[in-house]
Write a structure and sequence with these properties.
CATH topology of the largest domain in chain B: Rossmann fold
CATH architecture of the largest domain in chain B: 3-Layer(aba) Sandwich
CATH superfamily of the largest domain in chain B: Thiamin diphosphate (ThDP)-binding fold, Pyr/PP domains
Oligomer: heterodimer
Strand order of the largest sheet of chain B: 3-2-4-5-7-6-12
Radius of gyration of chain B: 20 Å
Distance between the termini of chain B: 44 Å
CATH class of one domain in chain A: Alpha Beta
Number of strands of chain B: 14
Strand content of chain B: 15-25%
Helix content of chain A: 40-55%
Number of domains of chain B: 2
Shape of chain B: globular
Largest interface: A-B, 49 and 45 residues
Structural class of chain B: alpha/beta
Largest sheet of chain B: 7 strands, mixed
Structural class of chain A: alpha/beta
Number of helices of chain A: 12
Radius of gyration of chain A: 21 Å
């Protein structure tokens, strides 16, 4: 008989308020946010190594938005977003290895090397992209939701866009029709403060973007996007409204990107102090602290999660590195559904 | 039993039959429902199919075209009517950047089976903004198919094929010819996309045209026959994919080609056809390929400008005689 050594058990820190959600909920938020953070860091590294090319817009700082959305909606709900989309796709459940392989332009990528950083799509995950034209996904998301209503489901479509897209006419046309026809669409503006290099305050006389919905009598609110709890709560409420057949809902989720607009942007238009202010609210850090304070995990268990994510990203990198590029003949596939389409070949 | 139907009635039958056949087909656009269509193409459809499937939109071309694209990606088969293709320019982002790209950028995860349709081309003295053709603009873009047709029988069969097609389709009709009558058989039939039709057989010269210029071409051929010139007239019906084969085979027979195209001349349909023919029938050509396009200008209001701007039988006959090396 050998002596049984008890592992240290997690204990709630005295004076900590009661957790609002379950241990599993906090763990799943933490895992997803950490997965996004580490994969994005890897994407940036691979970009600096010139293994990833084209445009690349990372989600670092905005992870709580993806986490809070996914816990509050159903897998059969649809999501469509813009080109800062790696985190949203990971939230949908698209595998890290497929995402990294797509960034590498490999045949094993989420979209066979045809979409790159801006365009992941997955019918199985009800993920409608990954769209590159600012604001164009707003009517598309409205149409995806229109189809759900047409088919008589109670699914909704989360239609995400940035603060820059909020200034496009497509938003107003969509808001108007969605309210007129009571379409089950949840509009989410991820307001990260900057449309590329132009601050929200410089783009409009109305810096409170949620107010744009009020002109259409659409229920519209601003939400703190730096922690998954507040995002989850706002979306849960909005989704219930939409599923009750009352039409669309608009949430302006205030978040922040730590990096530039894309990898080529040094973000000189903002101050270090501003960046540090948001870093102090970092959703991965604060959620990690909550897991410890609530006594949900020990330091060792936390380390095990970090190791698991680290290994996943390493494995995904290896997979991307070792996968083959697509065959050049694939240029002629997926242009038309028609199999014998007569391309002009001279 | 064939009936005599107007173009608008043939298009109406095509949409109605396909909507009866497939619950996922619906029609949306400005004035399509309660007003029965700006040109009465959708007359009675609201009564038959109800407001769920025949939908009046606000004047928001970008928005409702995008709603159509999203609905198509999510399993429906929308027909989006533009009151004219001139207004569809507001929706080109959705047509060119999204509908045409969906299949490619998703690597086949999503398709976009949608029909965008409406009238194209000059229609009286409507001036600069309401008189344009967009066949060449849209046919330039891979991912799209472009139909342009005015014959009631053929338009019905082509529109039915378009609604069943899994690719995004732009269908150009004609405001001036919605009332044009033609024989349409009873019962079910389809006309394949991408196949031209020989409208008149001939031996001396080939005239290739489409949409309402086919009527001008046939008038010219009639006149030419009186002068002993036998013109073959080909109606493209589909612009993309272009039926190169039918054109090249005809030119191999006649050795002369005139393209009659209401589009502007620069980088248009006529230019594409001229390229194909010099490439694949070079040794058969007895004269340079000639074209009759609308003028390389905007179209102003006064009647004199319309006459000067558009192709007509006189201009076509002149071009034919040019390639025949006969003096007018």
């Amino acid at each position: 008989m050998s002596a049984v050594v008890d592992k240290p058990k997690a204990k709630r820190k005295s004076g900590t308020p009661k957790p609002k959600y379950s241990k599993d909920q906090y763990l799943s938020w933490y895992e997803l946010m950490l997965r996004i953070r580490r994969l994005e860091e890897r994407a940036l590294l691979a970009y600096s190594q010139q293994k990833v090319r084209g445009f690349c817009h990372v989600y670092i700082g905005q992870e709580a938005v993806a986490a809070g959305i996914e816990s509050a909606i159903r897998p059969q709900d649809a999501i469509v977003t813009a080109y800062r989309q790696h985190g949203t796709a990971l939230g949908r459940g698209i595998a890290s290895r497929e995402i990294l392989a797509e960034l590498y332009g490999k045949a094993t990528g989420a979209n066979k090397g045809k979409g790159g950083s801006m365009h992941f799509f997955s019918a199985a995950h009800r993920y409608f992209g990954g769209n590159g034209i600012v604001g164009a996904q707003i009517p598309i998301g409205t149409g995806i939701a229109f189809a759900e209503k047409y088919k008589g489901t109670d699914n909704l479509c989360v239609t995400m866009f940035g603060d820059g897209a909020a200034r496009q006419g497509a938003l107003h046309e969509s808001f108007n029709m969605a309210m007129a026809w009571k379409i089950p669409v949840l509009y989410i503006c991820e307001n990260n403060g900057y449309a590329m290099g132009t601050s929200v305050g410089r783009t409009s006389n109305v810096p409170d973007i949620y107010k744009l919905g009020l002109g259409y009598d659409m229920p519209s609110e601003a939400v703190d996007g730096m922690n998954p709890e507040s995002v989850h709560e706002a979306i849960t409420k909005a989704a219930a409204h939409i599923r009750a057949g009352k039409g669309p809902y608009f949430l302006e989720i205030k978040t922040y990107r730590y990096k530039g607009h894309s990898v080529s942007d040094p973000a000189k238009y903002r101050t270090k102090d501003e960046l540090n202010e948001y870093r102090a609210m970092d959703p991965t850090k604060t959620t990690e602290q909550k897991l410890l304070d609530f006594g949900f995990v020990t330091e060792e268990e936390l380390q095990a999660i970090k190791d698991m994510i680290k290994n996943e990203v390493e494995e995904a990198t290896k997979f991307a590195e070792e996968s083959p590029f697509p065959d050049a003949s694939e240029l002629y596939t997926h242009n038309y559904s028609q199999k014998d389409y007569p391309f002009i070949m001279d | 039993m064939a009936r005599i139907l107007q173009l608008r009635e043939a298009l109406l039958e095509a949409m109605s039959e396909e909507m009866r056949r497939d619950e996922n087909v619906f029609l949306m656009g400005e004035e399509v429902a309660q007003y029965n269509g700006a040109y009465k193409v959708s007359k009675g459809m609201l009564d038959e199919f109800g407001e769920k499937r025949v939908i009046d939109t606000p004047i928001a071309e970008l928005g409702f075209a995008g709603i159509g694209v999203g609905a198509a990606m999510n399993g429906l088969r929308p027909i989006v009517e533009f009151m004219t293709w001139n207004f569809a320019v507001l929706a080109f982002d959705q047509i060119v950047n999204n509908a045409a790209k969906t299949l490619s950028q998703s690597a086949g995860e999503f398709k976009c089976p949608i029909v965008f349709r409406g009238p194209s081309g000059a229609a009286g003295q409507l001036a600069q903004q309401h008189s344009q053709t967009f066949e060449a603009w849209l046919a330039n873009c891979p991912g799209l198919k472009v139909i342009s047709c005015i014959d009631p029988y053929e338009s019905k069969g082509l529109l039915k094929s378009a609604i069943r097609d899994d690719d995004p389709i732009c269908m150009m009709e004609s405001e001036m010819l919605y009332g044009m009558k033609g024989e349409v058989p009873e019962g079910e039939y389809l006309i394949p996309i991408g196949v031209a039709a020989v409208k008149r057989e001939g031996t001396d010269v080939t005239i290739v045209s489409f949409n309402k210029m086919i009527l001008e071409s046939l008038k010219a051929a009639e006149e030419l026959a009186k002068e002993g010139i036998s013109a073959e007239v080909i109606d493209l019906r589909t612009i993309r994919p272009l039926d190169h084969h039918t054109i090249v085979e005809s030119v191999k027979k006649t050795n002369r080609l005139v393209v009659v195209d209401e589009s502007w001349p620069f980088a248009g349909v006529s230019a594409e056809i001229a390229y194909e023919v010099q490439k694949y029938a070079f040794d058969y050509l007895d004269a340079p390929v000639t074209r009759v396009n609308s003028a390389d200008t905007s179209l102003p209001y006064a009647a004199v400008f319309v006459e000067e701007y558009l192709p007509n039988p006189t201009k076509i006959m002149k071009a034919v005689k040019e390639v025949m090396y006969t003096n007018a």
